[in-house]
């Protein structure tokens, strides 16, 4: 560094000149001070302070009210958060809002997937069982988060049987149980199904609206035999509702940080 060395030399010459001309420097303190400052210049580039100024945003009255409200809301939601259910045969994998459950059975791979952002959230506290409105001032509100989920059954050959399923809620007018044999299917249903391999694209999906009833029942049995039964879908609903609640709390915390200027 030629330029740094020259700065040291210049500073030394200045000290020597002052000492000889005026006899003011009777000790090496000032000279050593100048020498140290020159060394600092050689090691650190000159930085203009204004380049690193931080500009704090001014918090509005509305932001302060929002922060205070969210503190209580977050505390309330955390107190009412349920524990995640456990699954006997399926492993659970969670990535953000995407949830995947999977197992291997008889050389087949069974995968169940859903996205919390696609859930249907229903406030069970504001509706009676018959669908009539209850008192609006009711304090207890239970949010049930119904997922739309897919089930993929993959054979060792790579062939996949893919179902797209939805829950039958108490508020779903399409639910129609015609016989006792159909009662086992009243918790959920599949809306379409397709068969494909990973290399195939634009595969035909068979809709259930025009499907033969016997075929539909046998395909539902295919799901039940692989563990996608009443116990599983009830646990899946609990999982979906709890994870949606956790995501909602995380959203409130992020909103609080935003309003606080963090």
Automatic annotation (TrEMBL):
Signal peptide from the UniProt entry: none
Cellular component terms per the entry's GO annotation: mitochondrial matrix
One BP annotation, GO: cytosolic ribosome assembly
Family to which the UniProt record says this protein belongs: Belongs to the MAM33 family.
Protein name as catalogued: Complement component 1 Q subcomponent-binding protein, mitochondrial
Organism: Hydra vulgaris (Hydra)
């Amino acid at each position: 560094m030629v330029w740094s060395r020259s700065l040291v030399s210049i500073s030394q010459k200045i000290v020597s000149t002052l000492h000889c001309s005026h006899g003011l420097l009777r000790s090496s303190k000032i000279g050593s001070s100048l020498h140290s400052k020159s060394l600092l210049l050689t090691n650190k580039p000159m930085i203009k302070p204004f380049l690193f100024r931080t500009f704090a945003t001014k918090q509005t009255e509305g932001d302060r009210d929002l922060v205070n409200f969210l503190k209580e809301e977050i505390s309330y939601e955390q107190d009412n958060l349920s524990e995640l259910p456990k699954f006997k045969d399926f492993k659970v994998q969670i990535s953000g809002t995407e949830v995947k459950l999977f197992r291997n059975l008889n050389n087949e791979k069974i995968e169940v997937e859903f996205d919390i952002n696609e859930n249907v959230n229903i406030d069970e506290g504001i509706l009676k069982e018959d669908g009539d409105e209850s008192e609006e001032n009711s304090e207890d509100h239970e949010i049930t988060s119904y997922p739309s989920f897919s089930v993929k059954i993959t054979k060792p050959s790579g062939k996949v049987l893919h179902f797209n399923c939805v829950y039958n809620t108490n508020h779903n007018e399409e639910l129609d149980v015609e016989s006792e044999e159909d009662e086992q299917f009243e918790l959920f249903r599949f809306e379409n199904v397709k068969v494909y391999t990973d290399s195939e694209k634009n595969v035909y999906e068979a809709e259930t609206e025009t499907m033969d009833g016997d075929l539909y029942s046998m395909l539902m049995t295919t799901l039940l035999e692989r563990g996608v039964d009443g116990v599983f879908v009830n646990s899946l609903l609990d999982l979906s509702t709890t994870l949606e609640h956790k995501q909602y709390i995380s959203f409130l915390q992020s909103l609080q940080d935003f309003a606080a200027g963090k």
